[in-house]
Amino acid sequence: MARSPDFPDAVRTRQTDTPLGGSFALIADELRDHKVCDLGCNQGHYLQFCGPGSLGLDVAAESVAACQARGLSAQRHDLNSLPLPIADEAFEVVLLSHVLEHVQAPLAMLRECNRIVQPEGKLIVGLPIEDGLYSRLRMDYFGGGEGHLYSFSLPNLDKLLRLCGFVRERVICHLPRLGNRPSVWNERLNRLLGTRLYTLSAAYWYVARKVGLPVADHQLSDYFSR
């Protein structure tokens, strides 16, 4: 495992045990010491790295109980039920890891993320890749047991986030051959090749910054103005 002088051994070990831990190590600093809302927090795999005042929401009672048993703040809520029980601009960062492809109304969810994150705050979206080599060989994306309702290409996510008041800052690809193990190769390959790793990857992290408010419904398409 590559050693980072910023992270003690215990933190690096927890990253190794985290889903997508290898690529997650490259975004962990976006959560550390920040007040984060983890939507779909599961058992706190990522919430454990967030700063004071952070909160997780999850539909599963057992996930919320697991978070609370670890001393993490979490509450039960169905993410398809909007608005979320969160005040406006309450968080510095919103984390949406492998959730957007499951909810009934992704655009509405992204608008909610804009509402609850502070101006210039961050939105981090983690998504699987439907059309990459890994998925074609290893996964029945829509027919498998994962419950995927949607898939999002990078241009598609760029557009949706722009319509919801966000702008892309960076993309980190998760290379399955490197797995969960934090490695200097994760950082080097992402730095050198960037989104060109997309077709070889199993998933990706998209880090965006809030720059404004979502556009109105009638501005979502210019089709009828042509």
Features:
226 residues; alpha/beta; Rossmann fold; 7-stranded mixed sheet; 26% helix; globular; disordered N terminus
List the helices and strands and how they pair.
Blueprint: H1 9-16, H2 21-24, E1 36-39, E2 55-58, H3 61-69, E3 74-76, E4 91-97, H4 106-116, E5 117-128, H5 133-138, H6 154-163, E6 166-174, H7 184-193, E7 203-210
Parallel strand pairs: 1-2, 1-4, 2-3, 4-5
Antiparallel strand pairs: 5-7, 6-7
Task: Write a structural description.
This protein has 226 residues and is of the alpha/beta class. It has a single domain, classed as Rossmann fold. The chain has 7 helices and 7 strands. The protein has helices at 9-16, 21-24, 61-69, 106-116, 133-138, 154-163, 184-193; strands at 36-39, 55-58, 74-76, 91-97, 117-128, 166-174, 203-210. Strands 3-2-1-4-5-7-6 form a 7-stranded mixed beta sheet, with helices on both faces. Strand 2 (55-58), helix 3 and strand 3 (74-76) form a beta-alpha-beta unit. The N and C termini lie far apart (55 Å).
Helix-residue proportion: 25-40%
SSE string, helices as H and strands as E: HHEEHEEHEHHEHE
Named at the architecture level, the CATH assignment is: 3-Layer(aba) Sandwich
CATH class: Alpha Beta
Question: Nearest-angstrom radius of gyration?
Answer: 17 Å
CATH topology: Rossmann fold
The largest sheet, given as strand count, sense and whether it forms a barrel, is: 7 strands, mixed
Residue stretches low in confidence (pLDDT < 50, at least 5 long) are 1-5
Subunit arrangement of the protein:
single chain
Q: How many individual helices?
A: 7
| Class per helix and strand makeup | alpha/beta
Overall average residue pLDDT? 90
| Tally of DSSP β-strands | 7
**What is the beta-strand fraction?**
15-25%
CATH superfamily (homologous) name: Vaccinia Virus protein VP39
Integer tally of domains? 1
Cα shape: globular
Straight-line N-to-C gap? 55 Å
Which sequence of strands runs across the widest sheet? 3-2-1-4-5-7-6
